[in-house]
Amino acid sequence: QKEVEQNSGPLSVPEGAIASLNCTYSDRVSQSFFWYRQYSGKSPELIMSIYSNGDKEDGRFTAQLNKASQYVSLLIRDSQPSDSATYLCAVYEQFYFGTGTSLTVIP
Amino acid sequence: DTGVSQDPRHKITKRGQNVTFRCDPISEHNRLYWYRQTLGQGPEFLTYFQNEAQLEKSRLLSNRFSAERPKGSFSTLEIQRTEQGDSAMYLCASSPLRTDTQYFGPGTRLTVL
């Protein structure tokens, strides 16, 4: 079992729809979780962090954490073509990144 | 520009040669990380410094790889006797002590011929 697992996709959504990205992790003691966006050929850029169970909203982005289920998700509302990228889930304590989910937003 | 910088941005070398990369973290960031990323994969942790101390090193890292951060500011990553399998993007990130949030540099793309 990989330490951080993501559906590699590709995930395609129409412009204006909600994109839902999911991530599971294996280490129960993990406390710090991050979502990064990575455009092709570029380095990862931080979208948001989450540390507590529940939802955390930042603009069009909402991160959700469920430590009991060892599950982290990212929702992107009103998806735009500029959101087309690979989204990486990361667990800080073990410095683990998932393989990323490729998202395409179709105009 | 006050972000993380890396030099060079691209490096092409022949198998068996040594290469060295440099990373300058965001000013006053105590923590510095090196990752390696290949196509279709997420960043793979290599090593981590807090100030000048190397606190973690991936067991996947062969002894051909070495990293230093002598004054707790910039860091270098050296790969000795490069192999074709070392071809990848080498990413550096930094974070302040008060948060776990890592900020990435633009990366150094290594191609070993």
Would you identify the regions of chain A where 5 or more consecutive residues have pLDDT less than 50?
none
Any idea what the radius of gyration of chain A is?
Answer: 13 Å
Biggest sheet character of chain A: 6 strands, mixed
- Helix/strand class of chain A: mainly beta
Mean pLDDT of chain B: 93
Q: What's the total count of β strands of chain A?
A: 11
DSSP summary, beta strand count of chain B: 11
Low-pLDDT regions of chain B: none
Specify the overall morphology of chain A: globular
Verbal overview:
The complex is a heterodimer of chains A (107) and B (113). Helices cover 0% and strands 54% of the residues of chain A. Chain A is mostly beta strands. The radius of gyration of chain A is 13 Å and the shape is globular. By secondary structure, chain B is an all-beta fold. Chain B has strands at 5-7, 10-13, 19-24, 31-37, 44-50, 53-57, 65-68, 75-79, 88-95, 103-104, 108-112. The mean pLDDT of chain B is 93.
In short:
The complex is a heterodimer of chains A (107) and B (113). Chain A is an all-beta fold.
List the helices and strands and how they pair.
The complex is a heterodimer of chains A (107) and B (113).
Chain A: E1 4-6, E2 11-14, E3 19-25, E4 33-38, E5 45-50, E6 54-58, E7 61-66, E8 71-76, E9 85-91, E10 96-97, E11 101-106
Parallel strand pairs in A: 2-11
Antiparallel strand pairs in A: 1-3, 3-8, 4-5, 4-9, 6-7, 7-8, 9-10, 9-11
Chain B: E1 5-7, E2 10-13, E3 19-24, E4 31-37, E5 44-50, E6 53-57, E7 65-68, E8 75-79, E9 88-95, E10 103-104, E11 108-112
Parallel strand pairs in B: 2-11
Antiparallel strand pairs in B: 1-3, 3-8, 4-5, 4-9, 5-6, 7-8, 9-10, 9-11
